[in-house]
Write a structure and sequence with these properties.
This protein has 898 residues and is an alpha+beta fold. It contains 32 helices and 20 strands.
Length: 898
Amino acid sequence: MFSKFKGNPPNAPQTPLDNNPILQYFDVRKQTASAGPELIWKIHDGYRKSDGKEVSIFVFEKRLAEKLHKPKRKETVAEILRGGVRQLERFRHPRILQVVHAIEECSETIAFATEPVMASLANILAYHEHQGTGAGPPETGASAHAQPQHPIPRPPHACDYSFLGIELKYGFLQLTEALSFLHCIGHTLHHNVCPGSIFVNKKGIWKLGGLEFTEMLSDMDPLEAITCTPWTSRLPKMAQPDLDYMAPEIQTSSTCSILSDMFSLGLVIFTVFNYGRSLIQANHSNSQYLKQLDTLDDQLSEIMPRVPIPLQEAASRLVNREPRQRPTAQLLSLITYFSDPAVQALQFLDVVNMKDPAQKNQFYRTTLKDILPSIPRKLWLQHVWPCLYAEMKTQESLASVLHPILVLIQECSVEEYENNILPAFRNVFTIPKTIQASVTLLENLHIILEKTPRDDIRTEVLPMLYSAFESSTIQVQTAALVAVANVSNYLEETAIRRMVLPKLKLVYEKNAGDIKIDINILVCIQKILDRLDRTQIIDEVLPLLWDVRLQDAEVIMAVVNIYQMMLSDKKYGLSVNLMATRVMPLLTPQLVNPALNLDQFTGLSNICLEMFDLIDRNQRNKLKLDTMPLQSSPDRHRPLRHLCSSDNMNVAPFSIPNVRVEQRKTSSAEDMARKNSGDSGMLGSWWNRTSPSSPDSNYLRVHNAYTNRRLSDNTLMAPKIKIAPSCASSPGGPGSPGGPLPIRRHSSFGPQERRGSTVNLSPPSGIHYRSSSIPRAGPFYPSSSSIEYLARNGILGIPFQGGSMPNTSSSVPHLLSSSMHSILRSRRPSTCLSGSGSQTGGASGLWNQFGSGMVRQIVNTQHSTVNGRAFPGTNVRQCPSISLSLSLSDHRIILCRH
């Protein structure tokens, strides 16, 4: 197939066209269609070597006429074909097939080149004939006989071609215009209007060809009949017109006129609606033709329902046997059937080259743009786009032709755009354009970017946009600003920060004071604001906003919209200081701008109020924080004192093994002192805080038990207490570093510093520890104080030690609020108690368990001497809130709530 381009190999078979001189000018490719009398013209695709223009090559192989046997008949056929080509060269009309290259002949072939065609109407209707489902006469006639004799490979674009209603309407109108031109301007009778003489190009336009049998008409009266030769079997079929489409008067009276061509046109119309079969199928027989002619009316009645109603009357008159009843081509073009705006728009496109620039611009900007939605989508790329692409190459028409092109791009699919429009449309981005064309393209750039691939956007479209900012024409710069606002979503953040924003500032500096430029720049900033970083907004955007002249209402509202967007998020960097010092001094004077309407004033007022509210809240909070340390009101610390007071402390419920918490009513101080002195013995007096001077006092009545003790020794001091471990595994147990006492971390020390715990565990006021079963001899068990005994034998679970520290009232809240709660909730029950049998070991295990239950014995470091022994003072405070009862064997310690 490609031997035509690279030269035939030495052993390649020769083709009839190899010796034809036309190969010097054209690259001839495969055959795609056929046409002419008996379809003897073979049509090939081709390209002109000089400029690559697409053409169609018509080739006649002389060997097809060898079956005629008589050399004279062979020459007659060749001469008829040559005459038809000369006639085509003579007539120049948009509806007549145009010859590109004249006849080139050799001993084997005759060839010439025309404008590109897809197929003949006979080729398309032959496919429809096989697809028709309606019943009809046998397949006879020219097309039925030609196909077996000259089989051609039907190309897919011709075989699968189906006509839309508007295509048929426009096609019939084009044939009418061609005949009108021949009859009125050329004074010529076609004499062979049939599907084999009609061509359809790739744009869907119908062209009239096959001028081999034309007759000249009278210049005085085109309707005047002239003599002609009827069809006869004595001449070759390929040397005569198609009998199936011949007018009756030619066969009956050997006369013809322009109305004879109208009869043939009527038969073509009915053939299209009859699945490609003609109403007359004479089978190359004159007698058969006359018989078919008599039954013509019956066939019309069967086919008429398939014909559109607006065309039925005119079509039936066209095939009338009486010539005077047939309409002329001029009258036929005026019927209602052809009064379609879409058809008229397509008609104008075909002859747009013959129009002046003003007519073109008006048609492209308004007419075609409005009519496109009513034109079928099939014709957009088949018919409309090729015409627009041809006009796009001219500078004077580019600005106006862009309007319908943009409509096509917007409505077509992505695949259609990338495959059909984009390859030809790429040149528009780079070629020099007029100001109006650049403005049109930039203002509608978002339509193009919706369908354009990302790579093409970055390499071809955006460079055109960036260069538009540097244009010396203010219209182009304004259009570029509009384009940025429309296509901001397609721009990368890097491009916005490095390219778009600097160019926006450059345009603003060049056109300072231009209201339209200012508005477009502010709109662009609003579109790209969320794509900028905080530093660029503060350093570049805000200074530009402060520099804009706030006089026009639209400019003011554009600035207000930007500030409103900045207030919605702190990331934009609009601080309170900037609002108070730079923004509000510029906005507040505009509140009395007479150019603002009610809605605009409301928007400006709201933004000012919002800024003022932010400034007010921020400044008030700041001033409150600044003045708070300077206040010396006595009520300042009252909430803290109230929260830390032990009288108002609600201790959370807790559970301690072998500990019963008893709730009892509060009694008077005299009753408590009486019970403690009579029942509790030493421990009751130890925990009672009574004064020597008053029994209702909370001081310890130690002198009741110790007659030799001075009242000055009853001072309550807070000892240093080390917490014993609850078990061997506890921190600070035996074997651990630092001895048997635990190590506590304090937040006031460094993260790596550890020290022994000195938590103030002074008991709260109002708590009495009563021991009802501690063994004693007289007031003390064997000649020592009970406290010393308990301490020395480990029953209290703490070592007996000397020393003292001052105790203050502030220790109680600390005990209840932090230390006691943490001790009560953090220590785990000891397991040492289960195996305790001795008094010392049992008591030690009890205290471990008691310690794990969050109770600590407080030992005052002041000493008294009783019977020669040192006895520690036990001054404690009462707390009327807790009553605890501990029992272990015969030892029981009760904490009573008063």
